[in-house]
Amino acid sequence: MDLRLDGVTVKAAGRALVRDLSLHVPDGSVVGLVGPNGSGKSTALRCVYRALRPTRGTVWLDGTDITSLSLRAGARSVAALTQENSGELDFTVAETVALGRTPHLRGNAPLSARERELCRDAMERMDVAHLADRGVLTLSGGERQRVLVARCLVQEPQVLVLDEPTNHLDVRHQVGLLSLLRSTGLTVLLVLHDLNLAAAVCDRIGVLEQGRLVAAGTPADILTPPLVKQVFGVDAEVVAHPRTGAPQLLYTVGT
Ligand SMILES: Nc1ncnc2c1ncn2[C@@H]1O[C@H](COP(=O)(O)OP(=O)(O)OP(=O)(O)O)[C@@H](O)[C@H]1O
């Protein structure tokens, strides 16, 4: 499913948090948004998973304005891993993952055998099956993050929107999650702070600065020392990953 942000502007508290953002995420591709703290990345994603309505501009899903879809229909297409955690209730892990089926359920119908299998499979893929009966509020940050990704997967969306999905994850689970994202074939828009992980997983990267898209292109186009200096104020060297050729940044800490 093709995702397109077209001239999206979000204004709040008298200023533009995102200004005239146009970004295309072609069907089946992985596009990353990077940028300094407060540059508008989460705000842009919120417009896609409909926690926010843009002040101007449109988000298109396969050519349909997402605001013309019912919330339920939208949730059958788009699953989101957000930074908003306050809504978590004291459900078990298995119950939390099963909530991902909500947009597909009719009334109070119980999950079908296929849906229960889907939930088990997602929990195994995210390495949380052993936590199935634990309360989500008792989990570590990384365990909880993996449960929420499993919930997104059982939603069987065509588009995944992920706000810092590697947050809290150890290196094994970071690599595992990003490999999984690449293998799903879904259309993926994600925010990442780690530019090297972004280079490893993204087909294209957009760079936000003060709400504006200041660069967009392949990781090799984008992750250059001048851009990193300009946008993040950091000196970096770029080397090519010896096996994949992806650009990787080396930072100097201290003098
Ligand atoms: N409802 C709001 N009212 C006023 N300002 C807001 C609101 N929501 C976000 N902001 C501000 O908008 C800017 C962009 O916020 P946003 O969360 O999109 O940034 P971000 O790029 O995701 O940052 P981070 O990397 O720190 O997660 C920030 O300065 C933030 O304080």
From TrEMBL:
The keyword ATP-binding applies. Pfam families: ABC_tran. The keyword Transmembrane helix does not apply. GO terms for molecular function: ATP binding; ATP hydrolysis activity. Residues 3-235 form the ABC transporter domain. This is ABC transporter ATP-binding protein. Signal peptide: none annotated. It comes from the Bacteria. It comes from Streptomonospora mangrovi. Keywords: ATP-binding, Nucleotide-binding, Transport.
